[in-house]
Amino acid sequence: xxxxxxxxxxxxxVDLIFNWANDDDERRFSFxxxxxxxxxxxxxxxKKLNSDDTSIYxxxxxxxxxxxxxxxxEEQDALISYFIDKSYRNRGYGKRLLNLVADKVxxxxxxxxxxxxxxxTENIPSxxxxxxxxxxxxxxxxxxxxKNML
Length: 150
Prior knowledge:
Distance between the termini: 26 Å
């Protein structure tokens, strides 16, 4: 199988993350469907990279970036947001990314006891990924929330 691993995102990944963030599917499944202006993204990205409560990881397959995951930690919860490059979708990378992230959280954030994701009701592929990994599901009016206790 592919040599998959997570690496921490760096300032050099700003364009990669920007392009992924503006992918048509990403915008359609995001809570804010509008395209992101580059200047806004750069400000947001720098703020996130410098935050003690946020980690951004790039999923690597050998030397190729295939996806990313952002964790926003608040007390005992880590809110997950992830994305797989369109060239690598429907191949199990989402599951593998989330498994790697769960291991990373256990190692790097011992205070976190729950992984949480909020997924728009239209985002069936992501819902299937979380359910297949044993996350519990709670339904709200505009999204579904998935939780996994560590």
